[in-house]
Amino acid sequence: MNVEQTDLPGVLLISPKVFGDARGYFKETWSRQRYQDAGLPGDFVQDNLSYSRKGILRGLHFQNPRPQGKLVQVLQGEVFDVAVDIRYGSPHFGRWFGTVLSAENHLQMYVPEGFAHGFCVLTEAALFAYKCTEYYEPSSEFSLRWDDPDIGIAWPLDSAPELSAKDRDAPRLRDLPQHRLPVYP
Ligand SMILES: Cc1cn([C@H]2C[C@H](O)[C@@H](COP(=O)(O)OP(=O)(O)O[C@H]3O[C@@H](C)C(=O)[C@@H](O)[C@H]3O)O2)c(=O)[nH]c1=O
């Protein structure tokens, strides 16, 4: 596998080794020692799977306290996946990184603890799988506006996305009280 730093420090792009043959392909999607040696956490505690139709956007989400690092990948379809550094005091506070993850490109992204995360679906549907370093804790989970102009994510969308009620009402980063934000480092 190959692991690349992105231009947002802490966010990693992982290309698993894909063994193609006449039957199709095989890949290891996570192996603790190898991923740990490459700088990822070894202590994921929860696996999640979501299915969404084209035009759906989930995010931007984060947990604090109990921040979650997320190793994300797409099993079917294509999404534009985004991480935003929202750690109070970070030199990269408010900066985002986004890329296309798809079943075809096999890319995985690591979104570190303290970053907000979201994605929009670019194909008819997408099956989105991820491992988390912390358990889901609804009382610590928050949404941040997907189109916060202070963050300025260039979502590759031609029309307004479909959102959950929670995400539609989400505040801007500048309106989140400081104690809600994860702290750097
Ligand atoms: C995230 C999550 C949700 N749920 C439940 C709560 C709710 O009834 C239902 C749907 O939850 P949500 O609307 O929050 O699902 P969703 O919008 O898919 O939330 C996810 O979005 C992406 C972008 C992330 O980064 C994830 O960490 C997570 O926040 O599933 C769990 O039971 N466990 C979980 O870990």
From TrEMBL:
The keyword DNA-binding does not apply. The gene is rfbC. Keywords: Isomerase. The active site is at H61 (proton acceptor), Y130 (proton donor). InterPro entries: RmlC-like (IPR000888), RmlC-like_jellyroll (IPR014710), RmlC_Cupin_sf (IPR011051). The record marks Y136 as: Participates in a stacking interaction with the thymidine ring of dTDP-4-oxo-6-deoxyglucose. It catalyses: dTDP-4-dehydro-6-deoxy-alpha-D-glucose = dTDP-4-dehydro-beta-L-rhamnose. The keyword Transit peptide does not apply. Catalyzes the epimerization of the C3' and C5'positions of dTDP-6-deoxy-D-xylo-4-hexulose, forming dTDP-6-deoxy-L-lyxo-4-hexulose. Homodimer. GO terms for biological process: dTDP-rhamnose biosynthetic process; polysaccharide biosynthetic process. It comes from Methylococcus capsulatus (strain ATCC 33009 / NCIMB 11132 / Bath). This is dTDP-4-dehydrorhamnose 3,5-epimerase. Gene3D superfamilies: Jelly Rolls. GO terms for cellular component: cytosol. Belongs to the dTDP-4-dehydrorhamnose 3,5-epimerase family. Pathway: Carbohydrate biosynthesis; dTDP-L-rhamnose biosynthesis. Its EC number is 5.1.3.13. It is an enzyme of class 5 (isomerase). GO terms for molecular function: dTDP-4-dehydrorhamnose 3,5-epimerase activity. NCBIfam families: rmlC. It holds the Pfam family dTDP_sugar_isom.
